[in-house]
Specification:
7 helices, flat, single chain, mainly alpha
């Protein structure tokens, strides 16, 4: 029979064990190094692709694209480990729509997000900027589409010029 009393007050050892569990080391890349390295990989990859284009080596473009993808996936695996998620979620960067969720979590969520599910101020700011840019992009597309539609409508429905009318009446 067990001597543990489930109704007894917790001892100091139990509280210490719980504190150590909360201070888990996740490893991987933190938010700022992930952003910096991902930005650097993108810049270097684009520069190398431009060099390959100017050198006239199209086969090198495929190799550089694959290397860029591998580097990005490796960075995402390291960042997802830091968040407390499985590294397999990095494959979600290849899947449309899911890549937005995975990428946003990699950029915005703090260390251990899978365990505590709370965003810090920096994460809330990053998500706010992301959604603000999406709303701005939608507004720009709507503005361009409306200006095009208005110019098309008035171009289609406008009255003929007086010169055109006189020429058609005389002819």
């Amino acid at each position: 029979m067990s001597t543990d009393n489930p109704f007894a007050a917790p001892s100091f050892d139990t509280e210490l064990a719980m504190d150590q569990q909360q201070l888990r080391d996740y490893g991987g890349l933190r938010r700022l190094p992930y952003f910096g390295y991902a930005f650097l990989v993108g810049i270097i990859n684009n520069i190398l692709q431009q060099v390959a284009i100017s050198a006239g080596i199209p086969e090198l473009l495929i190799v550089l694209g694959i290397l860029g993808l591998v580097a990005t996936l490796w960075l995402a695996v390291q960042r997802l480990k830091n968040l407390g998620y499985s590294g397999w979620w990095a494959i979600g960067l290849i899947v449309p729509i899911l890549n937005i969720l995975v990428g946003l979590r990699c950029l915005a969520c703090p260390e251990g997000y899978a365990d505590h599910k709370t965003l810090d101020t920096a994460g809330k700011t990053i998500i706010g900027l992301f959604f603000g840019l999406i709303i701005l992009a939608i507004a720009v597309v709507a503005l361009v589409a409306s200006r095009w539609a208005i110019s098309w409508w008035f171009g289609f429905c406008k009255a003929p010029e007086p010169r055109e009318f006189e020429e058609s009446a005389n002819g």
